[in-house]
TrEMBL record:
PROSITE patterns: ADH_SHORT. Belongs to the short-chain dehydrogenases/reductases (SDR) family. It is an enzyme of class 1 (oxidoreductase). Its EC number is 1.1.1.100. This is 3-oxoacyl-[acyl-carrier-protein] reductase. GO terms for molecular function: 3-oxoacyl-[acyl-carrier-protein] reductase (NADPH) activity. The keyword Disulfide bond does not apply. It comes from the Eukaryota. The keyword NADP applies. Transmembrane segments: none annotated. It catalyses: a (3R)-hydroxyacyl-[ACP] + NADP(+) = a 3-oxoacyl-[ACP] + NADPH + H(+). The lineage of its organism: Eukaryota, Fungi, Dikarya, Basidiomycota, Agaricomycotina. GO terms for biological process: monocarboxylic acid metabolic process.
Amino acid sequence: MLSPQIFTRINPRLVFSQWGRLRHFATGAPTTEVRSAIVTGSSRGIGKAIALRLARDGFDICVNDVEQNAEGVNSVVKEIQSLGRSSIAFCGDVSSMASVQEMIKASVSELGPLNVMVANAGIAKVSWPMEITEADMRELFEVNVYGMINSNIAAAQQFIKQGTKGKILNAASGTSFRADVMLPAYSATKTAVRSLTQSFAIELGKHGITVNGYAPGIVQSAMWDHIDAELGRVNGLPKGENFKSHTKNIALGRTSIPEDTAKLVSFLAGSDSSYITGQTILVDGGLVFN
Ligand code: NAD
């Protein structure tokens, strides 16, 4: 298990009050409600765009990723702080429940009560269905499914302990609506995420906790760079061509950027979505219709 590392810097315009909660202080303006969110796998790509968008929405953010991406994590923390919000880094593996619990403890201690958990961390592996290896299958389920389950359970326990409503958001995928032949195990994990999102929503509704999924389509990120390269190995298409080849099937005529997904997550993390739960919403420019 990767040992968690916490790097904290408190914005000078903010001070602690009871609960370790940070509040705007220096301006003399009325006290503003401060909300905090954890975004897993947010050193880059979609998670980074979500972390920055939620910071702009007024959230203080705990940025998480695996220790190998600590540099990216610290850079996102600095970018959030430059927006005038508080942020901490927590490097740890979401497939370990102990690590997720440690992350929530650190976030609550530094940023105050938790309001939103974005279970975004994920990995992808390319293969024909008949060639899936047991090791790949296990690794995909460890990160994409157990990581999501750990984040959902630990966040819900924290919301219940706080006696506050909370929002949980899970990274599903277009492949949770229509499986991809070259991403069979990945598609299975994302279908599990969509199903578990519904089950958690049913159980947690009585606590006022909402649980929803966001399902991106074809997003330019390190994950798709990897998928594109692996597909190129199979079909011989040059770098970037497998990614681009999807454009013709997208109604809006372009592939996606991480900020497209961040806009949906911003809505799902905010109060305007308070009567939505158990849903997994596609944000794919019109690729899969459901
Ligand atoms: P990415 O690879 O750029 O980012 C994923 C991040 O998760 C990485 O920084 C990675 O280090 C981190 N991560 C992996 N395992 C982890 C672990 N055990 N603990 C903590 N962090 C871990 O990919 P992305 O495209 O930004 O994808 C983000 C999410 O969106 C993923 O869940 C992915 O499956 C989903 N998604 C992506 C696309 C796409 O087209 N890129 C489409 C649909 C869904």
